[in-house]
Structures are given as structure tokens and as C-alpha cells.
Specification:
- By secondary structure, the protein is an alpha/beta fold.
- 33% of the residues lie in helices and 23% in strands.
- The structure holds pyridoxal-5'-phosphate.
- Pyridoxal-5'-phosphate (PLP) binds next to helix 10.
Length: 424
Amino acid sequence: MNPLKMDFSDLIKIAKKNGTPTYVYYEDRIRENYREFYSAFNKRYKRVKVLYAYKANSNLAICHILREEGSGADVVSKGELKTALNVGVPSEDIIFTNNCKTEEELQSALEAGILINIDSLDELQLLGRISNKKKKKAKISFRINPGVDPKTHSKVATGLRESKFGIHIENGLAFNAYRLAGEMQSMEILGIHMHIGSQITEVSPFVDGVEKLMEFVLRLKNELGIELKFVDIGGGLGIPYQEERIATPEDLANAIIPVIKKWNKRLSYEPELWLEPGRYLVGNSGILLCRVQSVKETPYKKFVNVDAGFNILLRPAMYNAYHRIRVLGKENENSTERYDIAGNICESGDILARDRELPKIIAGDILAILDTGAYGFSMSSRYNSRPLPAEVLIRSDGSVELIREREGFEDLFLHQRVPEDLKR
Ligand SMILES: Cc1ncc(COP(=O)(O)O)c(C=O)c1O
């Protein structure tokens, strides 16, 4: 389903009924994306596990859809872990990755029996102390830093040598980590992990990363006698925000499965292949609806002021990201004008789209900002004291369901406490 072929009149109805700003997601699209992604790998490699990266969009309904499809969960906080457990993902299908886990997070992960993906030697030692105390073995993998350039925006490049993530293969650091863990009674080493970045549009960085990872896996077997249950190559596959031709799951699977099989021959065993897509599964399933409040002409630009800002959709301000925009009800108009779409946050950087040729816009029009299903709501905040927006799901049968209520102003004050003397 191409987002451009979506029925925009439905969206106008949703905006009228639920108000704006509102995120809208298409259930069908999420299911199709999952099946396409999974089968691209599974038809080439039998032992594949897909773990949806919850950070892309952790709305419970969406996580339920993906669990129903068979997806596991890649979580990065105790909140996401609780979300995964809440939607019923089995513990063996949950991996907990981040560069800075607290003692409380490690304890919860250990108790839940999920896979803990370790990012530093300090973290390994801390987990060792916790698991000794609890007399429970920890299931672990290490996130390694392969030192490859994912050729993406610098803020989402995570596998570079200079990045804060992972334990470097370089200088024997990752090797040493596995050796140490192998000597610890409380650790059950199950795998290895990398995640080199996000919105990656070509396959070559993945191939480089996988080559380095698999070469290292062979070293682990030959020199430490460690055989791994799985090799996790993370997420990161991009989506075409401007309808450009970029690498697809088919392209990626086609490129990396032969590399893995080549190394498997030398390993004489076949680890499971784990993948952690986020954006690919949900990015193009989502649309942000907002309403034009005013159109302002200056000597330099025409600004369209809308009731959504970077508190709701951070990607343009944070990554200079491009999102296609449609003026609902005016899809067939031929004459256009050039606009900047300005958010309602009091910062000059709050421009959602620059220099766009769009049909003539007037106050009251509803804009659809496309491909906002990933890193949209999940990165939102209440900055400028603006309550969080509603989220709506268009079900596979065409029915429409509210999956998150719009916050009220009372939510802004919910957890705040004013000292008694200040109330007087
Ligand atoms: C460890 C890890 N896995 C998976 C992902 C998902 O990435 P993407 O949404 O680009 O597929 C991320 C996102 O940054 C991540 O940090």
C-alpha cells in the first residue's frame, strides 16, 4: 500500500473527529512491512528472528500487532522492557541493549530472564555481582563496535570507531570481554550484536560490518572455544522518505546472507540470525495530521503555521529530515505556491518543512505529514507545555480506533509538587 494512495478523505474525517495534531497508523501497512522483511531473510536463511526495535514506536497497540506477527522486541530501557512483557513477548525473544544500564535495569532484566546485551566491562562486572547475589545466571551477548561507516546522518551513525556504542573489536577489547565473561560462572554467553546506525540506504556498510563480526565469531570459536546461539546484526535499514530508490530488505538479505553462509562453513555451525528493524516496520505506516492556523507572507517567505511542532515531530529539527506533505482535499490542484511549514514551538528551528511547492493553503486546511510512524510520537515531549497528541489506528478492516487519548492540560501538572509556602 503506497501512502500516496491512501484515502485522504478518511484522514479529514479523523482530523475532524479526533482533533489535531493526531498521529494515524495503518495496521495493514505494519503487517505487510513485517512479512516482507521477515520473508526476505527467512527464505534465504532458515534460522531467523526479527526483534522489533521498540524505540521507533512503542504504542501498545502497535507492539501487539508486531507480536502477533511473531516479532520479538529490542528494548533500550526498563520502560520498554515492561512494554514488551506487557504485550506478551516471550523472554527469550527480548534483547536489552543500551550503553548505560542502571543496577535497577540490570536487576529487572535478570529477573525477567531476557537477553542482556552488554556494552562495557564495567557493565559486565556489575551484572556479575547482581547475578551472584541473586544466584541466577545471566543470559548475555556483547554489543561490539565494528568500526564501519554507515553513510547516514552523523547523529544516527552508531558503528563508527568514534561512537559511544559497543566494545571495539580493535585492540582486542571485544575479545577480552568474551574471555572475561567466559571465566565468570554467572554468565551464559549466547550471542554477539552490532547496530551500525539508522536510515542506512545502501547495503555495503552492513556487508562490511557483517564480515568483521563473523570473522570475530570465528576467532571466538577457534581461540576461546565459544560457540554462539545467535548473531544479531541490529536494525538500521532506511525507508525512502522522498520516493528515492534505496536498499530494500531483499537487497539487504541478498547481500549479507551469502557472507554469513561463507563464514558458517568455516565455523562448522550455524548461528541464528537476529535482526532489529524499527523504522522499516512502522515508518511508512504513520501520518501526522495537523491543522493550518494561519498563513503569513513576509518579504522573504510564506509561512504556514500549523498546530504541531518539533515537540511532536522532532526529526526535521534534529536530523534535517525530509517528510512529504499533502494538503488534504487539494491533492488534484495543479497550481502551487512555495511555503515553509512552521511549527508552533517558540524556537526559530521549529520548521517542519522548507521551500515546499504545495497547492494554495489557507487557514483551516489540514496537512498530512507522511512517513511519520517511526521516531515520531516516540520522540515527542511536552516542551512549551503542550500536551501530547492522540494516536489513531486504521484497522485492517477499515475501522478506526483511538489507541492513545490526547493528553489534557491536567497531565502537565500531574507529577509536580508545589511547596506549601509557595502556594500562599
Ligand atoms: C540497538 C538498536 N537496534 C535497532 C535499532 C533500530 O534502528 P532502525 O529503526 O533504524 O531500524 C536501533 C535504533 O537506533 C538501535 O539503537
